[in-house]
Amino acid sequence: MQCYSDSCRSAEAADRPYLGCYSPSCPNARSSVLKPQQVPKVELPWVTKHPKRERKMSLFSQILAHPSGAFPTKTKIPPTTVISAMYMNKLPAKSQIKRLLEDTILTRYHRFSALPIEAQDGTISWLPYETINVESHMQSAEISSEADIKAYIENLFKRVWDSTKPMWHIHLLQSTTPGQPSVLIIELHHVLGDGVSQMQVLGDIVTDKAGKPLTLDEKKFKRMMQGNKPSPTLWQRVQRKAVLALNTGAAVAKVLSLPLLFGDTKTSLTVPYNHFASRRRAYVPVPPLPLDVIKDIKNKLHVTVNDVLLAILGGAMRSYLLHRNDKSLSTAAAAASLQIRALMPYSFPRSLDDLHNKWTMISGRVPVGESSPVARVQAAKNAMDKIKQSPEPVVAVFLQESLYRAVGHELSAQTNLDLFKKHTLIFTNVPGFTEEMYFCGEKIVHVQPIVSNVITQCSAVSYCGQVFMNFVVDADIIYEYDLLADFVVKELRAVALAAGVSTAGIPELQHPGEGKKAQ
C-alpha cells in the first residue's frame, strides 16, 4: 500500500535514513503513533470519494482540533461548537434528511467522515473513519414552545465531543403546538469549518422554491461576501495597495500589542477569566429585524449595513449598562474614557472545493460611550474604515502562524487567551441567502447562527429580507440577559428615527418589564 504522507515522501527526497512515518494511516507508521488495529477502515460508499489516506489539516484547523481549541490545555475550556438553527412549519421525514446527507455532504466533504488524529511530531491530520451510520448522528425531540427550543440549545453548549467519531450532529425538534415552528439544528465542531464554510454546506442542502439547489459557486460566493459593488478600477486597486503598505507598521504594532496592553473597561458585561471554562451559557435570540430599514439607514447616513449593525449593538450595550446603573457611564468623563471592543472574525477568500478554517480575529471598537444614535453609527463607520485601510488581517495570520511554529500550541494558545481577556465580546455578521430556502421541500422561515464562546458572543446573519441576530452570554455573570434582545430592537428604532427613515416592520419589545435575572 502506498503512503501519501509528506513525512514518507520527504524522507525519500532528502535521502536520509527512514525512521518510520508519522502518518497514523501509514502501514509503516511508528507503532507509538497508532497501533494497526486502531486504524479506522473506510468502506463503501465513501471509499470512492475519499480514498484511505491521510489528509493535511490547515494550521488553524489543527489549532481548533486541540481538546481546548485555541486555548491552553490547562484551562479546560471546551472547544467551540457552531450551531445553525433552521425554523420550519413542518420538518421533513427523517429518511429524507438521511438520504440528503448521504447524497450531498458525505460524498463531497471528507471532514464529515473523518477524525482529527495527532501524529508523533505534533501535527494533526484528517484520518478517514469507518462507514458512517448517519442515524447515529441524528437526534429527535419534541418541543412545545420557544422556551423549549432555548433550553435544548443551551444544553448543547455543554457538549463534550467524542473525538473517536466524526464531530457533527443533526437535531430534529418537532413542535407539538399549533403555530409553533419546528426546528432543525446542525451542530458542528469548529474544526469542520468556519462560518463561511457552514454557509457553503447550507447551500448544498437547500434549494429555492422550484427545487433548484442553492450551491455556492465562485461568482455567487463573491457576490454574497462583497455585495453588488462594482469591481474597482486599476487605479483604485493601486491606491488601496499603497494605503495598505503605508499602514503595515501600525498593523504590526497593533496586533503585537493587543494581548499585552490594557484591556477593556470593566463593566457589567465583562466576563472574568475564571468563568471562561463555564458551560452555563444562555441563548438570547433577537426578533427578526427588517433589512429594508437597515438599508434605508445605510443609504441615508452613507455607511454600510455592517456599520449599522455594529452601531445597534453598541447602542444596545449602552442601554443595558445604563439599566444596570453601571459606573462606566455614570458621568460624561467616564463615558468618554470607556473602552469596549469586539473581536470580529475576518474570513479570507478561498476555493469552494472543500471546507476551510481560513479566518482570523481582528479587534474593533464598539461605539458605546457616544450619547446619540447617529454619533454611534458614525463611530462604527470610523472604526470599520480604519480596519479596511489596514492590512491587520494578513498581519495577524502571519504573526499567529509564525508564533505557533516557533513556540508550539501551548504558548501560542496562552497568547490567544490573553487576547480574549482584553476584549468584551465577539461580533460576527455573515451574509446569507437573499432568496427563500427550502430543505427537503419544506420552507425555512427563520434562521439563527449560534456560537458559544468564552466571552459574550453576538452573531448575525441576513436571510430573505431580514437580519437574524442572537447573543450567547454567561448566565452567571450577565444578569437580566433577555433585555439585550429588547435593547437591540429599541436601538434600531432610535437610529431609524434619528436618520429620518421609516420604522415600519421593526418588531415590538418582547420584555417590557425588567427581564429575566440569572439565578
What descriptors fit this protein?
alpha+beta, 6-stranded mixed beta sheet, Chloramphenicol Acetyltransferase, 519 residues, 14 helices, single chain, disordered C terminus
Largest sheet: 6 strands, mixed
Q: Could you tell me the number of beta strands?
A: 15
- What is the percent of helical residues? 25-40%
The share of residues in extended strands comes to: 15-25%
Q: What order do the strands of the largest sheet run in, or round the barrel if closed?
A: 5-6-7-2-13-12
Mean pLDDT: 84
Flag low-confidence runs: 10-25, 30-50, 513-519
What Rg do the Cα atoms give?
24 Å
Helix/strand structural class: alpha+beta
Look at the structure and name the CATH superfamily of one domain.
Answer: Chloramphenicol acetyltransferase-like domain
The CATH class of one domain is identified as: Alpha Beta
Please identify, by name, the CATH architecture of one domain: 2-Layer Sandwich
What order do the SSEs take from the amino end to the carboxyl end, as H and E?
Answer: HEHEHEEEHEEHHHHEHHHEEHHEEEEEH
Determine the CATH topology of one domain: Chloramphenicol Acetyltransferase
Coarse morphology: globular
> What is the end-to-end distance?
59 Å
**Number of DSSP helices?**
14
